[in-house]
């Protein structure tokens, strides 16, 4: 079972099995073709001998058949049981055959037994039959209607009671030859063919082994490269590989690069988060120390003798700062992870409808009109739904803080099927932002107007999340007179039916 799981053994077994099947079929076909050719040549030679016997046949005036054996050239006719025989039969009036009327000396006291078939005059039939001493013979037979003194030959009439037209008797000439030598020749050929095919199979197996070793050599190189990578001696799969394997190597190295980027990004995020939490933790530590030692109170902490209520206020303030930092970094981490997930998809229309309902309740006291232009049902974002909700939610919340009466939301798909983009626009009719200050509005913690509540992180978070998805946040003038925040993000392909 272990060998069957081996790619090398599978290839070898498949090659040997296919070669064995092909050679077996070829052997059967070649053996059959050789036997057919030998038997055809043997039959032609036997027919030539039959023609010689037919030419030597003579019918005298009394209607008796004679053959002058001296006119037959093959000496085997005269040697008993030589394997080459001839015989002349005559058909009786009752339809039976008078066998062995004339026969070669080689037959000795035996007779040739031919099937009881009827032949057209002059035609030749070939049969296999038993011969002297149980030998297997190939018989060639011919029927003739010959009158006395070599009279005219007439066509056979199977129902004339032993004579042809005009009373001519029917003669059957038989020539037989032993198939022993032919069978031996066929067997010798089959043995040579079997040995040749077996040798060819061994050569094919050796070629298959060499082919598998050469073909799988790059996998050994790949194993060595993976070992070097695992041991930390390299950071990528290195080496020269065939063109069929190189795309796999390139994709694997790309995965390693993305993995390294993810690790580096995680380290950066952890460092940033740790740095961001240092300040609120330090402030809370100073406040707690000041509460315990009032005489050493610092200006940034409650005054000596500050109440527990003032200390709690400082703690709540710094915890809120820490929470915002944690939320921000968690959002970045979630977006980075969602970007690596293939096939991520989020329908836009229901998500935006839910956001508008929530924001309408949050800002209900201002009486704003929040509405969305019609959105195609197939409009989808190629990313995490929570990230899209946070980005658009921040933009709508920011627009509601500055809008006078209305906030409008639009969403559409731009571009073709390849590289399609999701474009989201949030317009308000507020005072807008001076073009010179729009870049500052995207800076983390930057607040252009302290009169409006906020932390200054909303637009910065949207910008950072959009960039993680390969997108962009753009601020510009709105047709309604306020600010237009336009979000460009990757669009998901249409859902399968």
Set out the fold topology.
Blueprint: H1 7-56, E1 57-59, E2 65-67, E3 84-91, E4 97-103, E5 124-130, E6 136-145, E7 170-178, H2 180-230, H3 246-292, H4 308-340, E8 346-347, H5 348-362, E9 369-372, E10 380-381, H6 385-402, E11 406-414, E12 421-428, H7 438-441, H8 458-468, E13 472-477, E14 483-490
Parallel strand pairs: 9-11
Antiparallel strand pairs: 1-2, 3-4, 3-7, 5-6, 6-7, 8-10, 11-12, 12-14, 13-14
Helix pairs in contact: 1-2, 3-4, 4-8, 5-6, 6-8
List low-pLDDT spans.
Answer: 150-162, 301-306, 445-456
On the 0 to 100 scale, the average pLDDT is 80
* Tally of DSSP β-strands: 14
Major β-sheet profile? 5 strands, antiparallel
General form? rod-shaped
Q: What count of helical segments does DSSP give?
A: 8
Describe the fold and architecture:
Helix content is 46%, strand content 17%. A hairpin with a 5-residue loop joins strand 5 (124-130) and strand 6 (136-145). It starts with 6 loop residues before the first helix and ends in a 7-residue tail after the last strand. The protein folds into three domains: 1-242, no CATH class; 249-340, no CATH class; 346-490, 2-Layer Sandwich (Heat Shock Protein 90). The strands form four sheets. It has a five-stranded antiparallel beta sheet with strand order 4-3-7-6-5. Strands 9-11-12-14-13 form a five-stranded mixed beta sheet. It is an alpha+beta fold.
